[in-house]
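Intended use. Records like the one below are meant for learning the mapping from a protein sequence to its folded structure. Do not use them to infer anything beyond what is encoded.
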Amino acid sequence: MSAIVLAVCVAPFAVAADGDAVRAGSRTTFTDITRILGNNAGYATQQSNLRNGDGGAARYGCRSVAGKEFCLLSKNTGGGGAFRFEAQNSLLGGSIEVDVPTGRTADDARPFTTNATGIATGLNADRLDGLHAADIITAARAQNPAGSAPSFAFARVTSAGQTDQSRSQGVTDANITHSTAGVYCFTSLTSRPKNATVTLDGVPGETSVDTTTNNPGADCNNQTNVELIVRTYDSAGALADKPFYLSITGTTG
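Structure written out for the chain above:
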């Protein structure tokens, strides 16, 4: 009888162990993984806090070091998404906070990593590779003379040296001098050429591009400060008027 009375008295104060039921409002400790399995078309479990105005639904904590398990793992093996967060009637979706080690700063920490390289729809990044937009512009200008910025121009040019403006940007008829067969000279371009490519428009022949000869003489009607020369040839290698597409990578300013 004394043993029975002792068991009844001690039971409410016993330390929880593996196999014990989870007790509401109390603490239950396990040394092995506890599984709650469902088999229904909705969610297997739900945790809600019915208090209005204050109180969260769930809290998870752990003491895992770097390289070990995360405190929370959500895994979908069926091909669908692994997580979804909803903040109703709110202007803040959530917060990711990192308490960095001593001697390190927030710039050393990453909010998250991913092996996905597709576009994250709606994600507005404040920095790119650690740089603000102003930093990127400054770095780009430093790589170009006189604080110039990269630019791009293109054009479809007829055999007569005229531009098709429906297929052109940064190049007009006023930029082209065509006084010698097969020679098209470009001046006063908005995009000052650093590199250029030419492709004939549906006709046989060859092309060449010159971005270094500023004063070619009679070939460009003795114009000076010529920025680009395109030459077109027939299949035998003789200069001949040909329609072509032109792409220019250069600088402005």
